[in-house]
Design a protein that fits this description.
This protein is mainly α. It has one domain. The longest helix has 28 residues. Keywords: Membrane, Transmembrane, Transmembrane helix.
Length: 139
Amino acid sequence: MLRTILGVLAGLATMFLAIMGIEFLGHLLYPPPPGLDPMVPEQLQRLLAAQPPAALALVVLAWVAGAFLGGWVAARIAPAHPRLVAGLVALVVMAGVVGMIVQMPQHPRWMGVLGLLLPLPAAWLASTLARPRRRPPPA
């Protein structure tokens, strides 16, 4: 039980760091205009409308990579329930996507659709890859 809880917590931390890191990279590649106040919704809406599709795709990539990496870490730490812990990490990513859609409905629909469809399969794949490999018995 303790490994399961630790796996989820470590997976969530990894997921958060992966998403933040990729989004930070996105801000380096596609910097916001100087003087942008992220606390003003109108300015964020204008920024969103001006972003190229590649910048928005990088956000979706961040969500999927966060679900994958966080799911992998969670499954490695909690091998008794790899799909469960990886799925919990993916569900947190999906909850964040829902929050983003509710907070700023101007995001393109494809971002929301991909953000809701891809994290679970990514986490499932990660949990499959995280399984320890069995070594053949010595000859």
